[in-house]
Amino acid sequence: MNLSDFEQSGVIVLEPKGKIMGGPDATILHERLHELIEQGKKKFVIDLSRVEWMNSTGLGILISGLTTLRNNNGELKIANVTEKIKSLLIITKLATVFEAYDTVEDAIQSF
Amino acid sequence: MEKPILTENSIRIPSSQEFLVDVDSFLETRLEKMGVEKPTIADIAISVTEIVNNAIVHGNKSVFEKAVTIEVTHHNSDIIIIVADEGDGFDPEKIENPIEDGNLLKEVGRGVFITRALMDEVDIDAKPGRPTRVTLVKHI
């Protein structure tokens, strides 16, 4: 998995690419997310368009970011959710927890 | 064992999550050869990496020297995957339901639940005091 990020209109957009299955690659996403939160960033969008699939490790990282941000008056939203990930969110009932948008622009505008 | 050991039908890895990518790569190669379609390969890879994660962390307690073995076979229209650890087992009755209200925002505990949803058969042969062996079946 590779990871890039940028800031637009005060919103941090994280762009993981590949598979999120646990191990060192997943740690990169977790650490970058929490590094930015510690820097005081409060608005996040995770663009999932380039994530081929993720397992529960990836879902755990998203939950970790979401709960940490909500405890600090922030918010994490997801965009471009692929069918594979959408089905996992439905299976695990996490579709009721995350705000999901069709595009990154829509997610940014929602803040 | 310092690195994964591959045979045609199996991969044996030390207990470290750094080798999950090797497991995924092995599965993709092996399942493509069997003619399995991409979305099904993804379902199998998600499930197997869940079970291997559990084998590494909960079974073998991340003791590097203890191995996790993954075998893949093809029988008629079934893909059969067996994941075996060298740990001390656990009580499967103690696995919590991750979609209960109190568990929904927990960061961990969804692996077996997701695996049961994606695979056609999941058999967890586990008891405290002996290694765990999980058999996964996907009809193709």
Describe the structure.
The complex is a heterodimer of chains A (111) and B (140). Chain A has 111 residues and is α/β, with parallel strands linked by helices. Helix content of chain A is 41%, strand content 31%. Chain A has 4 helices and 6 strands; from the N terminus they run ββαββαβαβα. Chain A has helices at 24-38, 56-71, 83-91, 104-109; strands spanning 2-8, 11-20, 43-47, 51-54, 75-79, 99-101. In chain A, strands 1, 2, 3, 4, 5 and 6 form a 6-stranded mixed sheet that branches. The longest helix of chain A has 16 residues, at 56-71. Chain A is globular and about 30 Å long. Chain B is 31% helix and 29% strand. Chain B has helices at residues 20-33, 38-59, 111-118, and strands at residues 5-6, 10-14, 67-75, 78-84, 121-127, 130-139. In chain B, helix 1 packs antiparallel against helix 2 (38-59) and helix 2 (38-59) packs antiparallel against helix 3 (111-118). In chain B, a hairpin with a 3-residue loop joins strand 1 and strand 2. The N and C termini of chain B lie far apart (34 Å). By secondary structure, chain B is of the alpha+beta class. Chain B is built from 3 helices and 6 strands. The model of chain B has no long low-confidence stretch (mean pLDDT 95). The interface between A and B is medium-sized, with 27 and 27 residues.
